[in-house]
Design goal:
152 residues, seven-stranded antiparallel sheet
Length: 152
């Protein structure tokens, strides 16, 4: 799923500003998800190449290894929790030089049949109106709010 960073009528964000928003989101998802969806999110270990965060999102406890490719890509590797695989947020410019934000993942469900009914239902949820697209649009909206508040 890809959405433009700077659609008509919105405050323009620079690559550096949207990157700051993505990094803040990676460190504390509570600021970006609907209230009550994420009740805990903390960085528990950090190195030069990645950090580890533990969170409770939608009632599930999870541990993610997060890598940051500055001003380009954030990857969340699912170390523990109901899902296995990686979730990626990527910032890039299209052919016209306009910033785009892309969300994609390579996910399965632990202990479930690959591409079975549970995984297909999970994928349908992500592909729906409240899935990837909503996550991207809310990330951009919250980044604009943080910018307006002087926090970015």
């Amino acid at each position: 799923m890809i959405v433009p960073v700077n659609p008509e009528g919105e405050t323009r964000l620079t690559r550096a500003q949207i990157w700051q928003g993505l990094e803040v989101k990676a460190r504390d998802a509570r600021l970006f998800l609907p209230e009550g969806l994420c009740i805990r999110c903390e960085v528990v270990a950090e190195s030069a190449t990645h950090f580890v965060r533990e969170a409770t999102i939608a009632g599930a406890d999870l541990r993610e290894i997060v890598t940051l490719e500055p001003e380009s890509k954030v990857t969340f590797f699912q170390a523990t929790g109901p899902r296995e695989g990686a979730i990626i947020n990527e910032l890039f410019e299209d052919e016209a030089g306009e910033l785009q934000l892309k969300f994609y993942c390579y996910l399965g469900l632990r202990g479930k049949e690959p591409n079975g009914p549970e995984e297909r239902a999970e994928q349908a949820q992500f592909d729906g109106d409240k899935g990837y697209r909503a996550a991207l649009l809310s990330t951009l909206k919250r980044t604009r709010e943080l910018l307006a508040e002087g926090k970015i």
